[in-house]
Amino acid sequence: MKLHEGEAPMFKNLEVFRISHAMAMHAGQKQAVAAQNVANSDTPEYKARDLAPFADSYRNNMSSKNAPGQLATRALHLNGVSAGNAAQAVVDEDAIASPNGNTVSLEGEMLKSLDAKRQHDRALAIYKSSLGILRTALRRS
Questions:
Q1: Which residues have CB under 8 Å from 120's CB, separation 6+?
Q2: Residues 6 or more apart whose Cβ sits within 8 Å of residue 82
Q3: Where are the alpha helices (DSSP H) in the chain?
Q4: What is the pairing mode between strands 49-50 and 90-91?
Q5: What does the pLDDT look like over 22-63, one tens digit per residue?
Q6: Whole-angstrom Cα distance, residue 91 to residue 46?
Q7: Which residues of 48-82 are buried (b: 16+ CB within 10 A; e: fewer)?
Q8: What residues have CB less than 8 Å from 117, skipping those under 6 apart?
Q9: What is the pTM of this model?
């Protein structure tokens, strides 16, 4: 397959690869938020944080001007998100506070961490499967 100047490879334009990349990035952010909560599990008055589910954050990203995966690498960029700011962690309002005001539940954070791992594994499986389908299609052409 010969590329012309300025053309991106065909697989760069497939939505399934963008979705799997966004899902893996969201899983990494979710894991980082859970780790931050665990690190602050003994901090008085610390409020546990969480990310919105991937489907909600992806849908919100698609409905805004910012395309998924679009990154603003300079302050003057009009569209995109800054590195590390793709999803905002919000305070978990459903959490129950301990006597010192801390709302982190270690058991809950373990479950959030497990959910993030499963989401990341799912994103990798989607990527690998799609790549295999693409390779098969290219071999037959």
A1: 23, 24, 27, 28, 31
A2: 71, 72
A3: 15-39, 54-63, 106-140
A4: antiparallel
A5: 999 999 999 999 999 999 999 999 999 999 999 888 877 766
A6: 10
A7: bbbbbebeebbeebeeeebebeeeeeeeeeeebbe
A8: 27, 31
A9: 0.72
